Amino acid sequence: MKPANPRILTINGGSSSIKFALFEASDPLQRILEGGIERIGSRNAAGVISAAAGRVTVRVIRTDEEIMIAKTVCRVLGLG
Question: CA 68 → CA 2, 3, 29, 34, distances in Å?
Fold first, then answer.
């Protein structure tokens, strides 16, 4: 079994949003997925994850944004 290329996770956090992207460290870099959550802390918070296979819209539960982000990223990466 061929080992997977290393991956690079980028995270950009703002005052009410967080964005992330996952790249395969090949030459050139290949974006595997990207996403983000906007309006964190408001009733209108929403998130999106895009990958080669498609786009998933995530409904954010107002008090559990951090948990939702962590669980979603883990699921997308196949970590749990």
Answer: 32, 29, 27, 15
